[in-house]
Amino acid sequence: MKTLALILAGGRGSRLDILSEHRVKPAVPFAGKYRIIDFTLSNCSNSGIYHIGILTQYHPLSLNEHIGVGKPWDLDRRDTKLTLLQPYKEWYTGTADSVAQNIEYIKRSGAERVLVLSGDHVYKMDYRKMLAEHEKKGAKLTIAVQEVPWEETHRFGIMSTDANGRVTRFREKPEDADSNLASMGIYVFEKDFLISTLQSLEREGLDFGKHVVPSLIGDEVYTHLFDGYWKDVGTYQAYLEANLELTNTVDKIPLDMYDRSWRIFTKSEELPSVKIGSKASINQALISNGSIVAGNVERSVLGPGVVVHPRASIKRSVVMNDTVVEAGALIEDAIIDKNVHVGENARIGTGDASVPNEERPDLLSSGLNVLGKGAHIEASAIIERNCRIFSRRTVKGRITSGSTL
Fold first, then answer.
1. CA distances for 106 relative to 82, 141, 194, 374, 402, angstroms
2. Which of the four CATH numbers 3.90.550.10, 3.30.750.24, 3.30.300.30, 3.40.50.2300 does domain 3-245 have?
């Protein structure tokens, strides 16, 4: 049966704050050389699904340039079809509303099933297994779920099922869950069932988790249990931790990026090999192509073209493309966007970590700093903890803990 994949990639991802200031969340760099959406696209390609619609909206330019005609994911062949679906009448107001506004595209696809995916999760999954289970059970809707710790159930949409995996109850972020099966936001619909369901509901703000799924409980709705690595990197802390986990020793890496049977594809820049200086010190790090390291890098991820000068030190941080760290600079516990310049002897990550960010304590309270694209940190400047530095700002002197610039 022919399957159409719809990748939801239009949401801003407001919890990523500065990182999504100029790009949509799926276009945020991850693991050095990749973008978050690369994982979903690679899953489709590796699963043999080549008919894909990508629903974009917020700041689409970076994402559109990255995807292009889909060549890195083998989506530019004669028998494949990759379509970018932007709003053409009105803004999308919810995940399901974005699909509802493209019903004509779905009808024309010729597909019999629709696989609805999020473009902002990090995981490796063979969708063929879920599709086969969906067909075997005669389901109208199958929802991918994962067992989560009971103490975390209040963060997810929770499914209760019978012995055959049929959904008997759905609760959004319950305080007293009677199951720990969390929805992953991955759905397989029978095409006609999806269309009729969307047409029967009010479109304004229509969301799969809040509206569509609850309305279908009692119908032929089943779960597919996924027991692999899956993470929503939608907060600063989750984003940093997911990146740094990739620097663990081989036997402790939760997401195997080196599995040649399931490659993660991306659009790569043509840059020279990594260069390591004679006095460099590197411990547990991912160093991307085109980088030059002459200083100290410890448990960190460096994107393409990053330059670390002698006596500079980077610890527990993510540093994105083409950032330059001058001699003697110190960076600890930071997420640094592209094209940032850190001057000589600057200090990022000193001071009191207990002072949360004054404007957004919900985003920064653990001592982490975030610097936006193109920021310029002058020589000997100091940025303490839990600070937000927006794009293209110039930092002079001392920025105290909890500040926003």
1. 13, 16, 10, 40, 47
2. 3.90.550.10
Cβ count within 10 A of residue 393: 16
With a cut of 90, say whether residue 254 has pLDDT above it: no
In the chain, where does the domain assigned CATH 2.160.10.10 lie?
273-399
Return the closest-CA partner of residue 58 out of 120, 12, 2: 12
- Please state, in angstroms and rounded to a whole number, the distance separating the CA atoms of residues 5 and 211: 21
Alpha helices in 164-272 (DSSP H): 191-200, 213-216, 236-245
Q: Which two tokens stand for residue 48?
A: 């043999």
Three-state DSSP state, 228: coil
Strands 157-161 and 167-172: antiparallel
Task: List CB contacts of 61: < 8 A, sequence separation 6 or more.
Answer: none
Can you name the residues that pair with 145 across neighbouring β-strands? 183, 225
What is 273-399's CATH number? 2.160.10.10
For residue 86, give the DSSP letter: -
Q: Predicted confidence band at 19 (pLDDT cuts at 50, 70, 90)?
A: very high
374-384: pLDDT as tens digits: 999 999 999 99
State the CB neighbour count (10 A cutoff) for residue 73: 25
285: tokens are 């790090």
| pTM metric for this prediction | 0.95
Note the pLDDT tens digit of each residue in 184-233: 999 999 999 999 999 999 888 999 989 999 999 989 999 999 999 999 89
Distance (Å, whole) CA 372 – CA 336 = 6
